[in-house]
Specification:
With about 575 residues, the protein is of the alpha/beta class. It is built from 14 helices and 31 strands. Helix 1 runs parallel beside helix 7 and helix 6 (about 200-210) packs across helix 14 (about 550-565). The structure holds flavin-adenine dinucleotide (FAD).
Length: about 575
C-alpha cells in the first residue's frame, strides 16, 4: 500500500551500503512521491562488504558479484538521487541541512532535508603504532578499493607469508582466504583467544582447528611496532612479548570505530566511543534525524545495557524501521542479540545472545549446559559432531545465549536457538521444539532438543554439572574422578588419577566407591556419564557430578593449551 504524504518529503540518507541502502529502498516502496537523496562518500553503493575476504581468496571469482546494486540500477529502480563520492562534512540541525563535499568535482555545497538518516557505518581501527604508515604492505579490509589494493599487491609481489592482526571474524576469514591462496598464515591476537563472542573453552576448539591447518597463533600478544624492511617488501613485526616475525603482507583486523567524526559539532548525542545514541525508534537526540547500523549505540537484547554490535542484519533491519518511522508507521527496534556466524576453514562457529563473560560482567545469574551432538543421524554417512554451549537462567530456565562449534548443521541450530531466545523461550521449550528430521539432515532428537534435555536436567537439578577447568584443582582427598568408558577408550588416554569402572560394571562394583567423597564422572562426551550419575544418585550417593563435554572436550582443551605453549614465544 502506498502512503501518500501531504507534501513531498525530502529525505537525505548518509551512507549507501547496508543500513542506508535498506532505508532508501524501503522509503521508495512506501512512498512513490518522496524525494530521496543518498549520499555516499565512497565510489560504490550497496556492495557486499561481507564478501570481501572471499574475493581476496578467489572463492568469489568475479568482482562484479560484490555489487549487490549499482548506483545506476538503484537510481532507475527506485527513482532516487544517488550521489557517490559525495561526503557529508557537517550536519546543521538548526538549518535542517547538511554540508557536502563532492570529491568528483571538488566542490562544497549545502542541501536541506525534512528527514535525515545517518548510516555512516564504521571504519577499521588503525592505532598510532610506530612503522604502520611507513609500511607499504599493511592493509585493512573494509571497502572494495581496500581489496583491490590487496589483490594487486598479492599479484605483484607474490607474497608468501600473511600476518593477520586480530582474531575477530574478519581476521579469521582473512586467515582462511590467505591460506586458500597458498600463503603461510599467522594470526596475532592481543586477547587470550580468538573470536571474542565465544567463551574461552569454546574458542579453544577454534584454536585447535587453526593449529591443525598450520596457522601460527600468537595469543596474548600485541604488536609493539612495525619495522619495514627496505627493498624487500616485508615488514618486521615486533611483539610486546619480544618475539619478532616477518610478514610479506599484513592485514589489520583489530576492531572498528564509528564513522561519526563529522557529527561532533552537530549537537547529536554521541557516546564515549562516538556511537550515535538513539531511542527504540532509531531517533537521535535531534528532531528529524535518525541513525542506524554500525554507528549507533543499541540496547543489548539480553543485558539491556547499551552496546555497539556491528553486524549487517541489525543494520538492514534498522534501515527498514527508520523508513517505516519516517512514513508514519511507528515501529520499535527491540535490541541486538549479536547472532553471528563465521566459517573458519572446515569449522563453523556461531553465537547468539550473551556469553558467560558478559553474564558475569553484568552479574546476571546463569547455568551452563554443554552437549555434543552429530549434525545428522549417526548411521547416515557424513555426520560430524558439533559442540553446543547453552547459557540459561537458573531462575526461570530462559535461554540467555548459545555458542556452537562444528562442521555441519551449525547454522540452522544457531538460528533455531536465536529465534527461541528472541521469543523468550526456556530450556524446556527447546525440548518441545518439533524440528525437521530425515537421516541426511538431522536426528529424531535434534541437537537443539538434546541441548534442551540436558539443560533442563540441570535446571531441574536432576544432574549437577562439573566443568573441565575444575579438574586440575580438585583435591583427591575430597573428590574422586570416575571414568566409566570402555577399556579401549581408556587405553587412548584418561584423566590422571581417575578410577576406571566401565559403565556396564558400575552396578556390580558400586560398593567400591566412597560415599564420603564427591564423585565426578566422565565418559567420552557426557552422555553415558549422565546415566552413571543417575545410577549413583539412585543408590543414594549424595555428591555426584557429570563432567560436561566429557573426556573429548577436556583433552582437546588441554592438548591445545600445550600446543599453544609450544608455539608462543
Ligand atoms: P556500512 O554498510 O559500512 O555503510 C556505511 C557507508 O557510509 C560506507 O560506504 C561509508 O563510505 C559511508 N559514509 C561514511 N561516512 C560518510 C559521510 N560522512 N558521508 C557520506 N558517506 C559516508 N556483518 C555480518 O553480519 N556478517 C558478516 O559476515 C560480515 N562480514 C563482514 C566482512 C567485512 C570484510 C566487513 C568490512 C564487514 C562485515 N560485516 C559483516 C559487517 C557489516 O558489513 C556491517 O555491520 C554493515 O555493513 C553495517 O552497515 P552500515 O550501514 O552501518 O554501514
Amino acid at each position: 500500500m502506498t502512503r501518500r504524504m501531504d507534501m513531498r518529503k525530502k529525505i537525505i540518507i548518509v551512507g549507501g551500503v547496508a543500513g542506508g541502502a535498506s532505508a532508501a529502498a524501503r522509503l521508495r516502496r512506501l512512498d512513490e512521491e518522496c524525494e530521496i537523496i543518498l549520499l555516499e562518500k565512497g565510489p560504490y553503493v550497496s556492495f557486499a562488504n561481507c564478501g570481501l575476504p572471499y574475493y581476496i581468496g578467489g572463492v568469489i571469482e568475479d568482482r562484479d558479484q560484490l555489487f549487490v546494486q549499482t548506483a545506476e540500477r538503484m537510481m532507475q529502480r527506485f527513482a532516487m538521487d544517488i550521489r557517490v563520492r559525495h561526503e557529508v562534512l557537517q550536519v546543521l540541525p538548526e538549518k535542517k541541512s547538511v554540508v557536502i563535499f563532492d570529491h568528483q568535482n571538488q566542490v562544497q555545497y549545502e542541501e536541506t532535508y525534512d528527514s535525515l538518516v545517518l548510516s555512516p557505518g564504521s571504519k577499521p581501527l588503525q592505532p598510532a603504532i610506530k612503522g604502520l604508515t611507513e609500511s607499504q604492505n599493511i592493509f585493512t579490509v573494509w571497502t572494495v578499493p581496500d581489496v583491490d589494493q590487496i589483490k594487486a599487491y598479492l599479484d605483484k609481489y607474490k607474497s608468501q607469508h600473511a600476518v593477520v592482526i586480530g582474531g575477530g571474524f574478519i581476521g579469521l576469514e582473512m586467515a582462511e582466504n590467505f591460506h586458500h591462496l597458498g600463503l603461510k598464515v599467522t594470526i596475532i591476537e592481543m586477547a587470550e583467544q580468538v573470536m571474542a563472542p565465544l567463551d574461552y573453552e569454546m574458542a579453544m576448539l577454534v584454536h585447535h582447528h587453526l593449529l591443525s591447518k598450520d596457522v601460527q597463533l600468537y595469543l596474548n600478544n600485541a604488536v609493539q611496532f612495525f619495522e619495514p624492511i627496505q627493498n624487500k617488501n616485508k615488514t618486521k613485526i615486533h611483539l610486546q612479548s619480544g618475539s619478532v616475525l616477518e610478514g610479506d603482507i599484513i592485514v589489520l583486523c583489530i576492531g572498528v570505530k564509528p564513522n561519526t567524526d563529522f557529527l561532533k559539532e552537530s549537537g547529536i548525542d554521541l557516546n564515549v566511543r562516538g556511537g550515535i545514541k538513539v531511542n527504540k525508534h532509531m531517533e537521535t537526540s535531534v528532531p528529524d534525524i535518525y541513525a542506524v547500523g554500525d554507528a549507533v549505540e543499541v540496547t543489548d537484547f539480553i543485558t539491556k545495557m547499551p552496546a555497539m554490535i556491528p553486524l549487517a542484519g541489525p543494520a538492514n533491519k534498522q534501515g527498514r524501521i527508520v523508513a517505516n518511522q519516517i512514513m508514519g508507521r511507528t515501529e520499535a527496534y527491540e535490541g541486538t542479540q549479536g547472532t553471528s556466524i563465521v566459517k573458519v576453514f572446515n569449522q563453523t562457529v556461531a553465537t547468539t545472545g550473551a556469553n558467560e563473560k558478559t553474564l558475569k560482567q553484568y552479574q546476571i545469574p546463569y547455568s551452563i549446559s554443554l552437549t555434543e551432538s552429530n549434525s545428522h543421524a549417526n548411521y547416515y554417512p557424513g555426520a560430524t559432531p558439533m559442540i553446543m554451549k547453552l547459557l540459561f537462567s537458573p531462575k526461570d530456565g530462559k535461554i540467555l545465549g548459545a555458542q556452537i562449534v562444528g562442521e555441519d548443521g551449525v547454522d540452522k541450530r544457531i538460528d533455531v536457538i536465536a529465534t527461541a531466545l528472541r521469543w523468550g523461550a526456556t530450556v524446556e521449550d527447546l525440548e518441545q521444539l518439533e524440528l525437521a528430521y530425515a537421516p541426511p539432515y538431522g536426528a529424531a532428537k535434534d541437537p537443539v532438543n538434546m541441548a534442551g534435555y540436558v539443560a533442563n536436567n540441570i535446571y531441574k537439578g536432576d544432574v549437577i554439572p562439573a566443568f573441565y577447568h575444575e579438574i586440575q584443582d580438585l583435591d583427591p582427598v575430597k573428590t574422586l574422578i570416575l571414568d566409566i568408558r570402555e577399556k579401549d577408550e581408556r587405553n587412548l588416554g584418561y584423566i590422571i588419577g581417575s578410577l576406571h569402572i566401565p559403565l556396564g560394571q558400575l552396578r556390580q562394583k558400586i560398593n567400591q566407591l566412597p560415599r564420603n567423597k564427591e564423585i565426578i564422572i566422565y565418559c567420552r562426551s557426557g552422555a553415558r556419564s549422565y546415566l552413571a550419575c543417575l545410577i549413583l544418585m539412585q543408590n543414594e550417593f549424595e555428591n555426584v557430578r557429570n563432567l560436561l563435554g566429557g573426556y573429548e572436550f577436556y583433552q582437546v582443551i588441554n592438548k591445545t593449551k600445550k600446543e599453544l605453549r609450544g608455539t608462543i614465544h
